[in-house]
Amino acid sequence: MNLTLKIWRQKSAKQKGEIVEYPISGISPDMSFLEMLDVLNSKLISAGEEPVAFDHDCREGICGSCSLYINGEAHGPDRRVTTCQLHMRKFKDGDTIFIEPFRAKAFPVIKDLVVDRSAFDRIQHAGGFISINTSGNTQDGNAIPISKHAADDAMDAATCIGCGACVATCKNSSAMLFVGAKVSQYALLPQGQVEAADRVQNMVAQMDLEGFGNCTNTGACEVECPKGISLENIARMNRELIKANLKG
Amino acid sequence: MSSFLKSSIGRKIAMALSAFFLMVFILQHFAINILSVFNPELFNEISHFMGNNPLVQFVLQPVLIFGVVFHFAMGFILEYKNRVSRTVTYAVNKGNANSTWMSRNMIYSGGFILIFLVIHFIDFWIPEMNTKYIVGDSSGLLADGSDYRYYEELQEKFIPLWRVVLYCIGFVFLSLHLLHGFNSAFQSVGANNKYTKSLKSFGKAYATLVPLGFIVIALFHFFNNVH
User: Fold this and answer.
1) Over the stretch A101-144, which tens digit does the pLDDT of each residue have?
2) Domains of chain B by range and CATH?
3) DSSP per-residue letters across chain A
4) Which of B11, B81, B88 lies nearest to residue A103, judging by beta carbons?
5) Which CATH architecture is the domain A117-130+147-247 placed in?
6) Does the structural domain A3-45+52-111 have CATH classification 3.10.20.30?
7) Could you say which of B84, B93, B187 has the minimum Cβ distance to residue A72?
8) ipTM confidence
9) A122 touches chain B (CB under 8 A)
10) Nearest-CA residue of chain B relative to A19?
11) What is the mean pLDDT for each group of 10 consecutive residues in chain B (227 residues)?
């Protein structure tokens, strides 16, 4: 495949960036998108140019490291995949592909396509955990009955890999799908009930502090989420926050 | 509670609650207006009741004005906050791939509804307030005292074609706003469950039929006048 890549290049957080065009040839349709970028970087290094910086780690859709806004969509045109799982067969020979970093004030660009998503870590630190005694006297998990429905919903919420596609794709740069999933995975289980009120209040407060926008329920996040996290999680987070405030 | 109302979700819920109130108001406004097509006498009677009942005038009307102002003001505040949350925009962004035009452009449909409302207030509300509270005529009667004035005033307003067209455009934007807003309000207050699918269908019907009904009323009076 022969392609024209239009890639956002930015030397550092403080410098201005721009779209730079790179023609590339000899791309196999069986390559992943990141492998295609590897090929480009090899060529750039051979030519003595600075390679394109982009995030990646597991390359099997689990770690949430890879990002990229490809041709106007988070993780590209395919559904329920991360960028590392996106294949070049999704594009046509001769295509022009725009590759941009995830854009949000709360996700500042570090370099080229790499953005700082530590805002998500700080939200997690604010309450995305349960405080549990692990001294050896921990109750056997099987001793606590949990309905299949609740267990399934909690597991679905917990599949969020925190990639930030929801923020990137939301017209308001809202992080509510991510926070909704992280609140839900505990709110649905008895182990999460003890700290439920503090958790949702602290996580939402941290989310607001980070400068994410407000959700206007467009549903774009749900469509673009590589893990298919449902909008039900945002509704559940809203209910949890109402409950927490009514309790005082 | 004050921290709740300052939080992004608190504001979103407040926005939804004002939307519920306004949607109920629109429905009762429509229910009264449609009487002007089928039963002008009853339309006159109810208009007079609404215009002179102290509960409606001095309790519900201020609540309604607060609801309208709050919904618009909060809408603009949230829009501003959302815009500053992304300082650099994408070179290419395929919004259509994952969301509806209505959901992405609530600020524009809402903005047109605001323009329409200003005109609507100048057309009906301000003259009504003037007649009742400045001129001091609460009789609701025509100058010759032969009948109530409300139906005749309504008909007069829909003589000029430009106003009929403007009102129809206003109702189209109301429909576009409601097509997203109706179900969005339920999602905001946390109502996303087994009834959501049915509620979405009901929301689409409400968002289509009520504005369409208002258009029918405007066109009915226009053609009634012409002939």
Assistant:
1) 999 999 999 999 999 999 999 999 999 999 987 788 877 878 89
2) 2-83+100-226 (1.20.1300)
3) --EEEEEEE-SSSSS--EEEEEEE----TTSBHHHHHHHHHHHHHHTTPPPPP---SSSSSSS-----EETTEET-SSSS--GGG-BGGGS-TT-EEEEE----TTS-EEETTEE--HHHHHHHHTT-S-----SS-PPPGGGS---HHHHHHHHHHHT-----HHHHHSTT-B-HHHHHHHHHHHHTSGGGTTTHHHHHHHHHHHHHHTT-B------HHHHH-TT---THHHHHHHHHHHHHHHH-
4) B88
5) Orthogonal Bundle (1.10)
6) yes
7) B93
8) 0.94
9) no
10) B91
11) 84 97 98 97 97 96 97 97 97 98 98 97 96 94 92 95 97 98 98 95 98 98 83
